[in-house]
Amino acid sequence: MSQAETISIAEKLERAQERIQAACQRAGRAAEVTLVAVTKAVSVDRIAEAYRCGARHFGENRVQEFEEKRRGLTLPSAVWHVVGHVQTNKAKKAVELFDRIDSVDSLRLSEKLAAEALQKGKKLPVLVEVRLGAEATKSGVAPEQLAELAAQLAGLKELAVRGLMAVPPYLEPAERVRPYFRRLRELAEAVASKGITGIEMKTLSMGMSHDFEVAIEEGATEVRLGTAIFGPRPGD
Asked: Which pTM does this prediction carry?
């Protein structure tokens, strides 16, 4: 068994928080960064362990996968995020299961989410996902279409737009990802400058296990950590 495999979830969470704080100090900013523990392919038992160790925000990639897990999870203070693409036919289930939708990327999906939120009498916090790279497989609105989508979302009173999310290309070393993080921050600033009623740009969800420190230096307020907390997924 390797040393990495013997490190507990508690130790990994502690190390991640230390790295978050150090990155904030380097950037000269307050340590106000939310750690979202990404639980794709992670068992219910290990999610519950992370909760016992202090994790409160959790991110799932797939609505259907989380629906199966949710039955075995009773974590009163947990905040559940969708961090993967949501198909419009999964909108109803997404609103039922999750507290936040971090991957809104179209007006059509937004309208579906708003309609379901209305039925449930809830205000649903969302982030708009922006596609920063050229990868055809990535979801997200194109940067040049972001302002238009933000203006359209302002008319959906059941949604509370809090900011932006992005999944930049995986590049090594992590420093090569910095321009993408900077671009997302600039896009958020541009949308905020328009003063669209009901649209906030206070949340920047960017940075994953291999590059989150660079993301924090560029303004991330949420980082999504999977392998840094739970170790490699099967098949990685």
From this structure: 0.94
